[in-house]
Task: structure prediction
Amino acid sequence: MAQSTVIQAPGLSTFLKSLKTTPVDPSVEHLISLLKRRQIRNSRPCAIATTALLLRVVGEFKGRDAAKLVERIRQVGRRLTSAQPREVVVGNIVRRVLGLVREVVDENADGQTPTGSEAPTPVPQHDSLHRPTLASSMSTFSPLKHAAAEPMHVGVYDGNMSDSGELSRRPPLLTSHTSYAPPSAGPLVNSLFGLFSQPIDTPSATSTPSGAQSPNGKTTFTQQNLERLGELSRGQTSLDLKGEVMEGIRELQDELETSDKQIAEVALEHIHANEIILTHTASTTVQKFLMYAARKRKFTVVHAETYPHDHTATHGVLLTGKKRESHADEDDEDDKWKPLTEAGIQVYVIPDSHVFAIMSRVNKVILATHTVLANGSLVAAAGAHMIAKAAKEHQTPVVVLSGVYKLSPVYPFDIDELIEHGDAGGVVPYEDGDFVDKVDVENPLYDYVPADLVDLYITNLGGHAPSYLYRIVADHYRSEDITL
Amino acid sequence: MSDQTAEAVPAPVASTSQPQDTPAATTNGDAKAIKPAEDGALKKLSPAELKKQKQAEKQARRAQQKGPGGPSKEQGAPKDGQKQSKEPNQGAKNEQARPVPIRRRPSQSNVPVQKEPEKKSKKESRQAGVGLFFGHLYSQPKQQSMNGAGKDVHPAVLSLGLQYSSYAICGSTARMVAMLLSFKAVIESYQTPPGTSLARHLTNHHLSPQIEYLRSCRPLSISMGNAIRWLKDVIIKIDPSTPEAEAKRDLLEEVDIFIRERVTAADRLIRDLASTKIEPGDVILTYASSSIVEQAILHAHKAGTPFSVIIVDSKPLFEGKQLARKLANAGVKVRYYLITGASHAIQDATKVFLGAHAMMSNGRLYSRVGTASISMLASAHSLPVIVLCQSVKFTEKVALDSIVGNEVAPAEELLSEAERRELLPLKSMLPSSRNASKNDDKVAASEEEKTDTSDVLKWIEESKNLHHLQVLYDVTPAKYIDMVITEYGGLPPSSVPVVHRLSTNI
Result:
């Protein structure tokens, strides 16, 4: 949050400004450096910056080859995610854009080619075969190396499938099961089963059908597939690939802008009169949600201040109603934006240690999140786990607000990889040299909250149970893009 | 340990050994001269009524003294009358073989006393706001000066009260020991007025105002309540026929024995037992700071057990910092987290040691706020949660949640100076100043450097629906606690009432 002290310090707004004038490649470098220096951080700014950049990338893309466009976006995406792997949102946006490209290609393919048995599948589901090699090319602690969204395959089956001969032989239950779902090879498998079978490289008889091919063969097949896909789009002169994709990215930008509002609009369905609601951090999503409810209902908010990494912003939000960072950009919107207290809502600020003590009076917990993972768990500001756990102990419902853009196809196998540790100086100031010298001071910025502690997710699509999130993941990301 | 004692003890005592003049001695004399006369009239009243009357008197006096010039006078006052306290305290020094743990609070110590009077009126307005959760706990604002102290409050008690309210003496054992030591000074200088007996007069008429004053500085801790009850019991049992000098000597001795048995020896027993629970390779997690946990860890460390410690701490007292510093200086490997990182800290821990403010009779632990969260996380990770607690802190009280009984701390303590400074740039964005025109904003920006950090507090006061809330303790459910180690040994929390009966029926 250092950039907020001076208005023109590098950050999201300066990046967006410079994006208009600088060419693409320097812009990519610019964003990478901003991400690395944490000058753009938190989900929303990262998402906005990434979409803006990708819009430029697509806009400047020369040629009509879809496969090359996919490769180009991928390459940019890979560099961005490895610059700051814990900002999972960056990867999410890249995947969304890739999905857009594929969708555009799909639609055209469907329209132009007869869906005969010879037609190449525009959705090369074997793409995830890239995974082993790609994972090693990413930064060592990338959370994405565990990444997988197995239930995706279910979504793939819903679509047009050419080689589904084996599929019909399978028991229906198994097709929805993660590790058995891909009909071809063991290396496809992205769950724990896959972890074991990958290095062996010889698919075991139990998990793979007879038609399995070696990974090498598969890769070439995939490339062939992509090439064919490229040829296909090249042949279609009428297809305005770039235009449609850019249109889609603009829609994505709209979604980012409106998701808070859409989430807020359901507030009245979830907050009743005279509730006592506990929340934490200075999340704009949560503040807008509560603000919307405050128009019609009176309730009480207990706000944990999230010391030491977010307390300044929290107090700032409560005093002024907005984050300091957003001050520069949209002035007109700011004027409408008042702190909760001005809407007549009683707000009690408590230190984080008081959460358990107060919880017996609280009847709803509303959490903001950093990233939502495909299994329904979430990564949120440190302290969230304690709050969610205390709520569980008191049987208080926990509601998580999150835009769909924060929903990531990542399955958490190693939680520690997703957790960023911050500056220890926030916990004990460095002036206290003696102390810092002798004592290991730690300042984790995020908490992992397992899915069983969450009762409800509210996204811009509506309310969902944590167990249903995998479906939304499947709707938004293509399985072949899960590993960039 | 011994050099620590040297560090810790001078704080309360050193101030007493400063050069003084005599005025306080005369005030004290005055008080005594007036007292007997009053007593004659008041004798028929019950103690409760007496108390009420005294409180009313005090309030009236406080109102008078609120006027200008109060603070400067007060600062002189504590030093004044401490001649009397000097001797008893020195006498007690050999008694203080056990360290009186003292935790200093950085932000608090330099808060000027002058601010106090103007804050009081605001506090009242805030009480209404905080009422939602802890309205029942606000009786009167915390005393942070000697303004309202009654004349018959002993100077040693006066200075102790200030040390309580500024958290200079913090932690229930330390507070209890300090109180008993200052009561020794009170007893030392006590003279039974003619016509009454020591047993009857001392408790009701001489100790009560002292206790009342201490309570006004900070609510009494459970251990203090227990000690007071014990002391009153001892005093009542004194045979009226014993000569006064002898009775006083006996009393002082009793107090010494109490401290030695219930605190010093108990500490040693608990420490020895608890340190056997620390095994090589253990990672001991503790929350905030407890003197007994500190002793146990240091003991195990001296015994050569290789283990490390994780200290979890929280705003606003940061007691764990002191503990971390002490342990690190002793050579223990220490990691330090704030409570937001607790769920990470707990993953690396193997055992959790907790200090106690009190053990409730329903097996619940009443301790520094945040303890409940830590034990919840620990028991979710199936870590043993061990509470170290002298039996003097056991109480017959029961509690189900942390809201019914608690101690409310002043809300302005929530934001430290540094945090307030970080909030200053928000000034131009405040709702109140946003209404002003753009030009004004620029002026405000240039003024920003001049603005005081206390302005931040004012903003919070001004925004009428915003409240800062702070309590000192919380109640940990018994199901999270695996063992309570007392001087009687290790017990399950369900045995607390039994031990409490045992220890009070001696």
In short: Residues 1-7, 113-192, 197-221, 326-335 of chain A have pLDDT under 50 and may be disordered. Chain A touches chain B through 64 residues (CB under 8 Å). Chain A has 20 helices and eleven strands.
